[in-house]
Amino acid sequence: MTKPSSKRASKPLVVTAGEPAGIGPELCLALARSPWAEDIVVVADPDMLAERATLLGQSVSIRNYAAGTSVEAGELLVLPHSLAHKAVCGRLDPANAQSLLDGLERAVEGCLSGEFSALVTAPLQKSVINDAGIRFTGHTEFLAELTQSATPVMLLVAEELRVALATTHMPLSRVPTALTTSGIVQVLDILHHDLQTKFGIRSPKIIVCGLNPHAGEGGHLGTEDQEIIAPAIDACAAKGMDVAGPLPADTAFTPAAGKCDAVLAMYHDQGLPVIKYAGFGSAVNVTLGLPIIRTSVDHGTALDLAGLGTADPGSMLAAVGLAAKLAAR
Length: 329
Fold this sequence. Notes:
This protein has 329 residues and is an alpha/beta fold. 35% of the residues lie in helices and 18% in strands. Strands 3-4-2-1-5-12-11-6-7-10-8-9 form a 12-stranded mixed β-sheet, sandwiched between helices. A hairpin with a 2-residue loop joins strand 6 and strand 7 (161-165). Helix 1 crosses helix 2. The radius of gyration is 20 Å and the shape is elongated.
């Protein structure tokens, strides 16, 4: 878990509680006893949080948020945002979908206005939002739309391992046609820029994965690596960026590839298994390319664990710790 920075952000962090039928609410309750308790505002239904605390046998005092309000350990500052229906652990309810997105939008507005220093999100259940008739492919894309950001970049962080994605939430069959040289250049530009400005890495070294096994095996296993990915790397290198590849994914993540500051994977399940193996329960999802700082947990809603009191808050604590560090920087 990231330790609190000695230099704290001047504005509080805002945390959204995520799917109320999942473990998000109890992860937020855990923040009441975290090192960042005084710097956190949770956007959630206060009655729902109080009911979950009672169910878990936890003594957490829920206080309504107002600018300048301070809290002590065991207290949680909440920006009230009521649910349409009462939440039941493990039972998804499409009726609550719009209120969850409205709460997320309120948190983003607060970050854009300077009311909050960074956004931390608990997991949402994409399926139930779509069941409500709302097109939703994930936090990353939704936040990009809210902030009018053209190219959001998903970065997973586990200690010193950082893995970014060239494409995010799409069927594997669509990945080859979604990859373009200009698109990869955009992602590398954003990754390089944010490693410098948000993570304080002066000269980032980035390794780029190939799309196909053996990075195409000289064209025998696919031509995308040679025709699309390699030209993007060349273009970025010509701008002075330290970028290597395309390397086979089974090489890029080994010591033989050399130390780097980030690896760019071509698709979701090329990069995430590695990061989750390396740091499950403590890894953090960071969205780059936004005008705000946003971090999130590295896991889903865990509906089967909701209300049992066994959910591990490690990733939430790590997400808050990293958000606080980035905001202080």
